[in-house]
Write a structure and sequence with these properties.
This protein is mainly alpha-helical and 499 residues long. It folds into 2 domains: 232 residues, no CATH class; 254 residues, no CATH class. The longest helix is centred in the middle third of the chain and has 38 residues. The chain is globular.
Length: 499
Amino acid sequence: MSKKLFFKGVSYSYIRQITTIVTGIISLPLLLNYFGTTNYGIWVLILGLTGYIHTISFGIPAAMTTLVAKTSNKNEKYQILKKSFFLLGAISFFFLILFIFILYFDDVWIIVILGNIDEKFIQITKSMFIIFIIFTLIKLPLGLYMQFFTGINMVYITEVYSIITAIAGFIITLVVVYLDLGILFFVLLWLSGQLIVNIISVFHVVFGYGYFNKEEKGSHEITYSDILKSGFAFFQVGIAASLVWSADNLIISHFLSPDFVTPYSIAFKIFTYVFIFSAIINGVIGPMYGNAYANNDWNAIRKFTFTIHKILPILGAYTCVFLIFFTKEIVILWTGKNEAFGGYLLVVSLGLYGFFLSYVNTYATLLYSLNLANKILYIAWGEAIVNLLLSIVLIQLLGIGGVALGTAMSALFVLLLLPKAIKKATKGEIVYDLKYGKKHFLLIVFPLILLSFICVDLDIINKMIIFIMVSIFYLLFSWRLLESNDINFLLKAISRKNN
């Protein structure tokens, strides 16, 4: 991948993120105030099931993207997409029929899954759940076409579709509120908008890149078995990841109620917005790892991953400090509700979680891109189990902040294990130097987190002054801790971004 294409992907990723943030900032208070805390919490709870539903894809989407990126033959790329679509389409159809069959006999199990739902919200909850499941199962195989662009190093096209999806969802939100429609209409229209965008991406690939199918065949034909075998590792990691990312809301709903899902989800949404830089950069650079690996260019892989391994935690820690300083003010200003703020334990825990993920995302991106996800299955399952157990215990002691703390501690568990796993999986080709990370955290990050926590009760003006001073200190000292090789690599990459 050329640097021009790389920076184009990053640019569109940031446009997508800005679009998502802007539409989200406007949409959330509209939906929260229009539908109420409970209905909004139930909708967020159901949306959180997306990760679980996607596990029925058995890792095929991730396997397809990785396999497409790793082959240079265009015909093979297209055949991988077609075979993946057939497999996932058959799986989705099977589960759709099974879902409808089970509903015909009983639907009480829906509330059992979702938790402590008040009786007057039970019927609407069931309806929202059924609509969501049906649309999601239909979208699953269609989503492969959008991901195909990532596999062929056209990440920016995938981002364009994500931008369109975000804008469509925002327009639907405005229409529903303006026309005074109910939440079921909102759910139906919102999911229909996503489905239409997916269908458009199918036509885009078929008519825009169908010539791939007419190219000369490669020497190695990817079989259905190859896709399933590759996807199985992603499938297991996906299940474990779902327990980490999707279990929190369910735990909160079961031990408390959907009303408490709302402040947790608002804090988590802010966390997602501000930490998106990690996913953006790693998402764009992932295909570069795959291409370099296909050419056996370990030196190129090392240059990128070692630099990102230092840069992302610098940004992650800075973001963590920012969240501690200003999340309360942001939430209250955003929603207009004091009760929408979930407390400082929640904020600190999510901030630390994001910092740990700055490392974990770098490790995971490398492993996924090299199709080595099967080498870390025990770590993924370990994280899921640790997160589940800690969250269940801590929510009873510390409330929703305890759930976030459990999630952060499970991420730390992964952070400590992955570098050794990568060294072993790559047979010593990738060995991360952890000295910088330890020095950076102990000398700079940890003291600043403590300072930030001490300042939370100050007025906003004093907070801003202190934060500006902290920012200058932090960025200067973090930069000085970087080695000359990392600095030179970054400066060269920036200076040559238009080449």
